[in-house]
Amino acid sequence: MRDLGLLDRVVACTRYCADVCPEVAVGSRIIVSDSWTAQSEEIAASKPDLVIASVPYQREAVEEILKAGVRFLGLAPRTLADIYGDIATIAGIMGVHDRGRQVIAEMQAAVEEVRAQCADAAARPRVFCEEWGKPIIASQPWVAELVELAGGVFIGAPGKTTTADEVAHAAPDVLIAAWCGAGDRVPLEKLVEQRSWNDLPAVRQGRVFCISDELLNTPATSLLQGLHAIGWALHPECLARPSGIRQMQSPPSMAKQSTP
Question: For residue range 96-133, what is the model confidence (pLDDT) as tens digits?
């Protein structure tokens, strides 16, 4: 809504929306936990004309919202094309068609700029990117697209559960963790140790990263920051280091060996 110039129309949002757009937490807006656990009473208290939610959302709460006569727009994007389409849909409902088209065009131009910067890189590293750790869930299809656009090869089935052994067998050159709701707090060293990943190419080369959750898991313009972070992780010679990414300093096994 901020990118569409409609932030003043927002009366309530989730705490994850506030992570992406801190301005939304200013003032008297109601901040609910998330679209899965939020109760209909919490949402109704803000007296909205329209409720917009992206999966997962609670079916019972949606039913109550609809019974109250409030319009509900449920989104379930999987790809970048879906995200562009959702932006156009929201812009259309809110009566700002032109601004919606402008936001989409700006996103596409920014994506193309990163793709062009990474296109001439000497190698295309193989990347495993996960959105959750227990169980291990590979990142969504739009993240797989971002990895490919940044000059990498996405390992595994996007959005699907996998195992530590399956990832190890694939021998990724780069590991990226962006756990839903974890911000930038994924414990990379602990993760590598617990999964016995010390001998993976990514770990031996120190190419293990945490990217802030909101930069990869939120289907919005914040994905552009996530794309820059992925691009730097894969090809630091092509892009400047952005904010929102943290690198494991050294493989845990090496750190232990160097301790007197």
Answer: 999 999 999 999 999 999 999 999 998 999 999 999 99
Cα Rg of the chain (Å, integer): 20
Domain boundary among 26, 60, 76: 76
Q: What single DSSP character describes residue 27?
A: S
> Is 54 in the same domain as 178?
no
> Can you tell me whether residue 50 is helix, strand or coil?
strand
Distance CA 81, CA 235 (A): 25
- The tokens describing 69, both together, are 């006569």
Q: pTM for this structure? A: 0.91
Q: Residues near 157 by Cβ (< 8 Å), separated by ≥ 6? A: 138
Q: 191: domain range?
A: 108-255
For residue 194, is pLDDT > 50? yes
DSSP per-residue string spanning 145-210: HHHHHTT-EE-S-TT-EE-HHHHHHH--SEEEE--TT-TT---HHHHHHHTT-TTSHHHHTT-EEE
Q: What gap in Å lies between CA 198 and CA 134, rounded to an integer?
A: 19
Classify residue 89: in a domain, yes or no.
Answer: no
For 31, the token pair is 């901040």
pLDDT in tens, 229-247: 999 999 999 999 999 999 9
